[in-house]
From TrEMBL:
This is Transporter substrate-binding domain-containing protein. Residues 1-23 form the signal peptide. Coiled coil: none annotated. Its main location: other. GO terms for cellular component: cell envelope. The keyword Signal applies. Belongs to the bacterial solute-binding protein 3 family. The keyword Signal applies. Gene3D superfamilies: Periplasmic binding protein-like II. Residues 28-255 form the Solute-binding protein family 3/N-terminal domain. Keywords: Signal. Pfam families: SBP_bac_3. The lineage of its organism: Bacteria, Pseudomonadati, Pseudomonadota, Betaproteobacteria, Burkholderiales. It is found in: Cell envelope.
Length: 259
C-alpha cells in the first residue's frame, strides 16, 4: 500500500469515527392489550397480566420468534396508540368491522363469538328496540356493542363506561337495566361469584354489519403486508398443531376458533 493510499484510508477511518453512533433499531414488538376484559385479559392482584389473549400474544410471539412487550392500554385508546406508533399491534378482542378497516389493518381472525344481552333476574327476554324503550343499556365505550345499540336502540338510554367491569358493577347495583356484551365474556361473568344473579336474556346476536367477521390482531395499514402476514401465519400455525385449541380449552367450555 502506498503512503498516499494509506493516508486516505486513515483519513476515512477518522471521519467515520467522528460520526455520531446511530441507535440500532429495536426489534421488540410492542403489543397493546386491555387488561380489563376477563377472561380474555385482566390484571391479577400482584399486577400481572393474565387471560386468554395474554397467553395467545406470547404464543404468537414465540411462533414468530419475536421479542415482545405487552402494554396495558385503555380499550378506547388502543387504536390511537397504534396510529401514533406507541404500540405496534393490538390483541384486545378487537372485532374486524368495516368502520375499523377504514382506519387500520387486521390479521386473519383468531376468534369469533356471538353477542348477548345480560340482565338481573326478572328482566324481560324480549330484547327488541320497542321492548327496551326507555331502558338503560350499559356498554363499554368504543366497542362494537356501543355501535350496535347506538344504531338500533334510539329510544333507550345508552350509558357508556370505560371498562366492561364497570358495566358489570352498574348492572349488579341496578343503575342500568341491561348490558350487551360478548357471549364468552358474559358467561364467564355470570358463572363467577361476582356475577351471581345476572343472566343472559334473549337470543344470541350475530350481525356482520355491526359485529364484524371475528376478532383479529390490529395493525397499522403500512404494516399489513409484513407484520400482518406474520401474525396471520402464526395464527394458522397455532390452529394447525392444536396449540390454539388447548389455549381455548384452558379458558372456555368450547373452541372459539372462527369458522
Amino acid at each position: 500500500m502506498s503512503r498516499r493510499t494509506l493516508w486516505i484510508a486513515l483519513l476515512n477511518l477518522a471521519l467515520l469515527s467522528a460520526l455520531p453512533v446511530q441507535a440500532q433499531p429495536t426489534t421488540k414488538l410492542r403489543i397493546g392489550v386491555e387488561g380489563a376484559y376477563p377472561p380474555f385479559s385482566e390484571v391479577t392482584t400482584d399486577g400481572q397480566l393474565k387471560g386468554f389473549e395474554i397467553d395467545l400474544a406470547w404464543a404468537l410471539c414465540a411462533q414468530m420468534k419475536r421479542e415482545c412487550e405487552l402494554i396495558k392500554t385503555d380499550f378506547d385508546g388502543l387504536i390511537p396508540a397504534l396510529q401514533s406508533r406507541k404500540i405496534d399491534a393490538i390483541i384486545a378482542s378487537l372485532s374486524i368491522t368495516e368502520a375499523r378497516k377504514r382506519a387500520i389493518a387486521f390479521s386473519k381472525p383468531y376468534y369469533s363469538t356471538p353477542q348477548t344481552f345480560i340482565a338481573r333476574p326478572g328482566a324481560s327476554p324480549d330484547i327488541s328496540p320497542t321492548a327496551l324503550k326507555g331502558k338503560r343499556i350499559g356498554v363499554q365505550s368504543a366497542t362494537i356493542n356501543e355501535a350496535y345499540v347506538n344504531a338500533l336502540y334510539p329510544d333507550s338510554q345508552i350509558v357508556r363506561y370505560a371498562t366492561q367491569d364497570q358495566v358489570y358493577l352498574e348492572l349488579k347495583s341496578g343503575r342500568i337495566d341491561y348490558s350487551l356484551v360478548d357471549k364468552v365474556a358474559a358467561m364467564a361473568f355470570v358463572q363467577s361469584p361476582a356475577g351471581q344473579g345476572i343472566q343472559p336474556v334473549g337470543p344470541e346476536l350475530r350481525n356482520r354489519q355491526y359485529f364484524g367477521e371475528g376478532v383479529g390482531v390490529g395493525l397499522r395499514k403500512a404494516d399489513a403486508r409484513s407484520l400482518g402476514a406474520s401474525f396471520s401465519s402464526a395464527i394458522e400455525a397455532l390452529r394447525a398443531d392444536g396449540r390454539f385449541q388447548r389455549l381455548s380449552a384452558k379458558y372456555f367450555p368450547y373452541d372459539i376458533s372462527p369458522p
